[in-house]
Amino acid sequence: MIGKAARRQGRLFLSPTILLLLAFTLFPFLFTLALVFGEARFVGGGLQIGFVGTRNWARLFQDERFWNALMVTLRIVAVAVSLEYLLGLGLALLVDRKVRGQNFFRVLFIVPMLLTPIAVGYMWRMIFDVGRGPITGVLQRLGVSPVGWLTDTSVAIYSIVITDIWQWTPFMFLILYAALQAIPPDYIEAARVDGASGWQVFRRVILPLLAPASIAAILLRMVECFKIVDTIYIMTGGGPGRSTESMTLFAYAIGFRAFDLDYGATIAFSLFLTLLVAAMVFVNMTRRLRDVRME
Amino acid sequence: MRTGMIIGVVCLVLFGAALGMAQARKFEGVTITVFTQTPPYIAKPVMMFAPDWERLTGAKVRLITAPWGELYPKMYSSFALGQALFDIVIMPAAWLPDFAEAGFLVPLDDFIKKDPYIEWEDILPVYRERIVSWGGKIYAVPMDGDCHIFYYRKDALENPEYQAMFKAKYGYDLPVPPRTWKQVRDIAEFFHGWDWDGDGIINYGVVEPRRYAGQADWCFFSRTVGYVALPGQPGGQFFDPVTMKPRINSPGHIRALEDYVEIMKFGVPGMINMDSGEVRSVFASGVAAMAIDWGDIGVISEVGPESKVKGKVGYAILPGSYEVWDFAKGQWVTLPEPNQAGYLAFGGWVAAIDRNSRNIAAAYDFISYLSRPDNSYISVTTAETGFNPYRASHFERLAGWIGFGFSAEAAEAYLKAIRETIGHPNVQPDLRIPGAAKYFEALDAQLALVVAGQKTPKEALDEVARIWEQITNEYGRDAQLRAYRLSLGLPVR
Hints:
The structure holds 2 protein chains of 2 kinds. Chain A is mainly alpha-helical. Chain A folds into 2 domains: 4-51, no CATH class; 68-294, MetI-like fold (Orthogonal Bundle). Chain A has helices spanning 4-36, 55-62, 64-96, 102-114, 117-128, 134-141, 156-182, 185-193, 198-226, 230-235, 247-257, 261-294; strands at residues 38-43, 46-51. Chain A has a two-stranded antiparallel ribbon. The mean pLDDT of chain A is 90. Chain B is of the alpha/beta class. Chain B has a 5-stranded mixed sheet with strand order 2-1-3-13-6, with helices on both faces. In chain B, helix 10 crosses helix 11 (251-262), helix 12 packs parallel to helix 13 and helix 19 runs antiparallel to helix 20. Helices cover 46% and strands 13% of the residues of chain B. Classes of the chains: A mainly alpha, B alpha/beta. At the A-B interface, helix 11 of A face helix 3 and helix 19 of B.
């Protein structure tokens, strides 16, 4: 039996953590929620938030710029995360073999992930520069006309995707490589003894065993990719036109350029909801796949 | 007797000195907080002059900085919550109406009247009378004089061989400097895509910012002023000063936007993705014949260590147009001379004091110290301060500019162009009403669509007008109309 005094003491010890949690998670969340359903006005004496119901949401759903930002974000997430997974898996399988210089490659592959997105943005902006970039120089030498990597509305989004893949494939590689290392060699040996081909070993043994790590890696990367802002901000600023404007960049523009706090918060909150739905759909899909396989 | 006299005199001198010191160090123990943009630009002068002022007054200066995007919310919340986190804010002039209208700032009229050092009359009238005042009171002290001017390469435009080629192609003399946007277009086309400076690198017609959130909107208004600011017709280029209806989709604005898009054909590759900062370095690298910018291109070109255009740059007031849209008549009128109205893009940085500050006297003293003629002259002639000239004395003394790295000829031409712009009788102020950032953001987002070919100029400006109406209604039409008229110096009903 825990005595009253001990319980009180326990609560006392827990209180700093609870207070910190409230201060750093719950309070900002509630404040954002108030903004989402309110109208924020700075007036003498304080910030005044008046309740306006779903007005901000109605504005959001009628805003063509919001739908564009949502589609841009979804496209970037879908293409970048899928390719990052495939490339990360490929690299992990390659390095997992007994090859010379394994350690060197292992370190080399994770270097891009260690750079800040701002630095990566500037680096790729220079590489993609249509006037002075090295890619333009090479293409011109080959007699190919320059591509507007960052200036063509239909190409710019893929330049962003390439940059994201370059930087974040190492993340997938790291997780999948660690998972590969954890697979007991006996399983693979047993499959081989039973006459399984290389492809069958990969398809029937390695891939299922990698599933938990794959789900975690994809989910984590997806969450991060939905919030993509720094590289886009540096590389294109959301342009040309609105062809690369992500949800976060849109929220930033409304909140911190137009100082429209309530609408900016609504956009940010809609990103949170989108992310929640996307994560739930993904987890649900993977669970179903696992159930089908088990049946 | 004699020894006694000497001792007496020494004591008197020491006493006097001590007394003087005590009087001079009038803010002993006081700490003032200054809030502005992350260094070097704008914050640098505070860092340069704070130690001297601290020595003279005994006070301490605490500098707090934030990136551009965080300035407004932090200032506003500090003001609105009555926290007085910052005694002094150094902010864009466009935000002054928001803060002054809400009663957040200290009126400085009395301080200025009693200040023997600030030499208020030395500050150019457009800054001291319009930019820093609101509702008949002065709420800030100018720190920086901002306006857009026109830059061109003298070695290209003044070359007799090229002038002859230009005349043969276009049928008129190449004007140096160009006086209309039509001429700018022709010159840009002529100098586009060939190596006219013989350095083995292809040159281009113009370089201007076109990137979203890259200060392109100010470049757009630099083009509109010539088309819509009819001399003698007050009202500005943003709204109708009687109804507060947006003027942004007028035929004059649409024509300016058409020019703004067309000139991109003769721009440096990738111009659509360039902001002002990149435009400056590209122009200084020597590839473009013409550009529009604040005073910064001049400084970078003449003083920058990597500049390839030192001594080759010409400076002029913004070009204009013979045809100007008359809002009163609702039609185009043709003038005998091009309408070259200047534009006070951004309006410069100003220093103001929080009404809730507990150190108002010390805060004003520091602002005065920064702004007094000698110190501000050092600020505007020092690299990376971000401050451009705004006092008559800044234009009169060339020594500082020459010491800065300008040649005498370049300094004279540079200062003349700025002074002509600021002192132009039809110079147009920037938008200075509550919510100015919202209006500009709406415009900027539409400009991005136009330059990407996703909307026509008319479609985009009609949409801007629609959003501007919404913003006006949101803030209250009467309040906005009053603010707009105040910003233009028009009587308020």
